Amino acid sequence: MIGVGIGLAYLAAFAAGGLLDRLGFPLPSSAGRISRIDGLRGLLALSVMMHHFVIWMQATRLGGTWERPTILFLENLGGGSVSIFFMITGFLFHRNTLEGFHISRIAALWVGRFFRLTPLVAASVVATGLIILWTQEYSIRPETVFTPLLTWVAALGQPPLLGHADSGRIDAYVLWSLKYEWAFYLFGVPLMAIAYDLLRGKAPTAALPLALVIGSLAATRFVALDWLAFPPLFAMGMLASEAAKLGEARIWSSSRGGMLTATICLLAALACAPKPYGTPWDFLLGLFFASVACGNDIFGLLRRRALLALGECSYGIYLFHGIVLFVLFYFGASSLAALDTASLPLLLPLVAIIVVAVTATIFVTIEKPGSAYGRAFVARFSSAPPAPSEDKVVG
After folding, report:
1. What is the CA 226 to chain-centroid distance, rounded?
2. SS in 3 state form for 28-95?
3. How many angstroms separate the CA atoms of 194 and 353, rounded?
4. Less CB within 10 Å around the terminal CB: N or C of the chain?
5. Is 66 exposed, middle or buried (0-12, 13-18, 19+ CB in 10 A)?
6. Residue burial 265-274, b: 16+ Cβ < 10 Å; e: rest
């Protein structure tokens, strides 16, 4: 039944996205945006939600613990989606690196990212804290409040918040990926920009991200560092940006054969990768994403307005779906006890609708105003043009 529940949840979320569109939800402007990427983001965030629903089922019904799903496809549905999110980041900000190092532009990018990412993280941390207070399993002392709170908001980790030992489970421990996003913005972008300045006219622009992929993979043979699995993902997004410049790649990716091949690559990676990150199967995910970057809209699916609405909500879906799942499985435990385990996945469509409704509200009230304030702040205090972001990207 888990497959049925997941399928129905995607359909329910799609219907909710369509309703948002009809109600006047603000969709991204077509100018300077790549609708395929926007639509893909919505599907990826929903896939992470499905992944964590399965983990909750394991922990509460199947005698397991809070750990990776035993079925590879369900495990990679979450991890593979995060991998593609990293590729999207590399793709979107590749142009910043190609422009070379300009401190005013880099600073503008950092400010824009802060106002784009941090308000929603802070809101999710507040929601988590309120839930901890509601459960009455807390300890309010300076060492249980201030340092953990700052660590969460800065996405440096998720130590016990308010003394609650398992507080990270409330949001499904999703903040870990933002640590790597921030590492890319703070270090990856400026270092790549400097490298492009040094290599300008001496090597093809695709050479640098390709070297990053090869270098990171080579380094894993000599040192056991988990973080080495992630630079290649950002670099694959940059390579996808380079591929999008090639007419042949755009033509093939937009063809039925290209779309079918890319879909097979995606499904093979999800079904076969032994772990979500740092394996050769990442290259199949990279091929799929490069195909989308070059024009593959999955037979028109990624251009549908309902998915564009979900794409706008994707960051909120990623940050807040875990909180909705916690409320369901923790506070609703007595009601769920009346359902047999096989029927539990049939709740996923309802969960999807609730998550979309909650995050659409959050997008309008917190995320969109935060991004707008960041752009206004940069425009007011910087003579440099605002750094491109996913809100303004030329494909």
Report:
1. 19
2. CCCCCCCHHHHHHHHHHHHHHHHHHHHHHHHHHCCCCCCCCCCCHHHHHHHHHHHHHHHHHHHHHCHH
3. 45
4. N
5. middle
6. bbeebbeebe
Within the chain, residue ranges assigned H as helices are 2-22, 35-60, 72-92, 94-98, 103-135, 142-153, 176-183, 189-199, 207-219, 231-243, 247-254, 256-272, 282-293, 305-312, 314-326, 333-336, 348-362, 368-381
pLDDT tens-digit profile of 176-194?
999 999 999 999 999 999 9
Per-residue pLDDT tens digits for 106-146: 999 999 999 999 999 999 999 999 999 998 778 888 888 99
Is residue 323 within 8 Å of residue 52, measured between CB atoms? Answer: no
On whether the CB atoms of residues 365 and 25 are closer than 8 A, the answer is: no
Q: What is the pLDDT of residues 344-386, one digit of tens each?
A: 999 999 999 999 999 999 999 999 999 999 989 888 876 555 5
CB-based contact 240:294 (threshold 8 Å): yes
Nearest Cα neighbor of 37 from 76, 107, 4, 85 is 85
Structure tokens belonging to residue 12: 């329910």
Rg of the Cα atoms in the chain = 21
- How many CB atoms within 10 Å of residue 58? 18
Whole-angstrom distance, CA of residue 120 vs CA of residue 118: 5
Q: Are 349 and 383 in contact (CB under 8 A)?
A: no
Nearest to 324 by CA among 289, 369, 272, 362: 362
Q: How far is CA 253 from CA 89, 235, 243, 266, 293, in A?
A: 20, 20, 10, 14, 9
